[in-house]
Amino acid sequence: MSSSRLLIGRRSLRGAFYMLTTRVADRRKVFVDAASVECVVEALRCSDREHRSRTLAWVVMPDHVHWLMQLREGNISRCMQAFKSRSSRALNLHRHTEGAFWQRGFYDHCVRSDESLENQARYLIENPIRAGLVAGVGEYPYLWTRWPMEASPAASAAAGDASAEQGPHR
């Protein structure tokens, strides 16, 4: 059961778009190899195949996952529960571990009608830049979006500043 504070104001609307975030228990950095990331990505794909969701973008960070999706069936809590359960089983099998993998609960933001889904996806795929994992959009291997990956002007400027500090590339 998730924290009652996380449930305040949570509504599940079929057809609504959500930005979801869930973290690995103890914030362990486990998504550092392609096989671990693939366990998560396959769980997202399975949610789409089961018509629970329609994925628009995702990014798998070292200790958490961001998912921009449209809820198609059921409610947001059951959709996330199914994703966490499926990915936990796959990750525990891959890592030869057992037990809970994800922190309890998750963060969700229902995207308002006046918010651009493409801008939400751009914000999501720029997360690795803001975290200092890469200098530019397209360099981080563990993300996907339905839209062309172009950085916002702010991210481009930040990446340019980082490149200038590092000097010319040879």
Question: How would you describe this structure to a colleague?
Answer:
This protein is α+β, with helices and mostly antiparallel strands. It has one domain: Transposase IS200-like (Alpha-Beta Plaits, 2-Layer Sandwich). The chain contains 6 helices and 5 strands. It has a 5-stranded antiparallel sheet, with helices on both faces. The longest helix is centred in the middle third of the chain and has 20 residues, at 76-95. The protein is globular.
Write a concise synopsis of the structure shown:
The chain has 170 residues and is of the alpha+beta class. The protein is built from 6 helices and 5 strands, in the order H-E-H-E-E-H-E-H-H-E-H. The termini are far apart.
Q: Choose one word for the global shape.
A: globular
Query: What is the name of the CATH class?
Result: Alpha Beta
Which fold name fills CATH's third level, the topology?
Alpha-Beta Plaits
Number of helices: 6
- Helix and strand sequence: HEHEEHEHHEH
The CATH superfamily title = Transposase IS200-like
- Cross-sheet strand order for the largest sheet: 4-1-3-2-5
CATH architectural grouping: 2-Layer Sandwich
- Straight-line N-to-C gap: 53 Å
Please tally the β strands and state the result. Answer: 5
